[in-house]
Amino acid sequence: MTDARSLSIVRGRVLTPAPYERKLVEWPDALVEVDADGRITAVSEAPADCPVPPTWPGAVIVPGLVDTHLHFPQTRILGSASGPLLPWLETSVFPEEARFDDPDHAAAVAREMCRALIEQGTTLAGIYSTAHPQATEILLTALEDGGLRAVTGLTLMDRNAPPANRLEAVEAMAASDALIERWHGRDGGRIRISMIPRFALSCTPELLREAGRRSREHDLLLQTHISENRDEIAQTLAAFPGHRDYLSVYEDHDCAGPRTLLAHCIHFSDDEWARMQAQDIAVAHCPDSNFFLGSGCMPLRVALDRGLRVGLGTDVGAGRTFSVRRVAAAAYDASLLCQAMVSPEELLWLATRGGAQAMRQDDRLGCIAPGFDADLVAIDVPPLHPSPSRAALIDALVFRHDAGPVRATVVRGRVLRGA
Ligand SMILES: [Zn+2]
Hints:
Number of domains: 2
Shape: globular
Structural class: alpha/beta
Strand content: 15-25%
Bound molecules: zinc ion
CATH topology of the largest domain: TIM Barrel
Number of strands: 18
CATH architecture of the largest domain: Alpha-Beta Barrel
Mean pLDDT: 96
Distance between the termini: 17 Å
Low-confidence stretches: none
CATH class of the largest domain: Alpha Beta
Strand order of the largest sheet: 1-18-17-16-5-2-3-4
């Protein structure tokens, strides 16, 4: 991308996660200095006679939102009410994903998805493509041109799906190798390739092992689904006989470790949670999707108390929104249903810093502080009740989306949207 404006200094109210504690730090009127590479070099309080005008008057500036889990080819079936999970895949998902052998369709949807992410303030996303190498190339080109950060790759399926949705293991690995060679690390690591077995049911043991091996050899994120739905769990254990639980299927096929990012994790046993912790596996929490498909509630507090890396995911199109803030609101509701509330402050931390940790990019992302990349979102602040306190501001960011839309989205100092 060449036509985006770059920022060298930003002035405004800043709310930033602390790096390691799940709390937020506020600068009422900050100056954020950004170098030519888009790196933050200094954050300071603006002096009384500061000549720099506020960059986005009336807005608060937070780090770019991180969507740790969504499906590019489901952009146009968002809201397709045909759940629970397995019938929804058959009825809504597989027919639409099969259409991505058409490059024109793939290109149109890729543009729509990038626009939707930027409009909602998402700057980094973990994106499942389809099993089509050409559609995945088209997606990667759109992400590169659109200025977003992304971790994406083929969605690997070589069984239990219609022929139009599958790619045999040998072909899929050859295509993945080509994607790694061509795209991984593009533009200073803004674009990264990931291994993405859709879920155990859609993969032969050979495909799972090959995906795990590449993740390890190339230090790639490995993204997949787990323990979303009870029928899915029963079918998975039938397809992989001799395994004690769902997580052990991934463990036994070289797909579990610190590079692994697992979506859903709803129906885990205590032993599975303990092994998640022992292996430093990250969680993509997708509560809006879980509500829409009636999958259940992931016990977020359990994951956090174990010290797991957790990010939020829209899971479009089972999730009904591209807004990570709306997902944070759904996560609040889900935490109450689990009788273990997670606060709006913690949720905003998870939507930014937590997501960066889950995606192993927390060395550069998720804080507004020197040494971090200038991935920023400006969000309009609505009139606050009962007073313009920090707590009221955080509540508004998580719950009052309609009154406080995203004003600007910035990746590495480049303005993707907004003046
Ligand atoms: Zn998903």
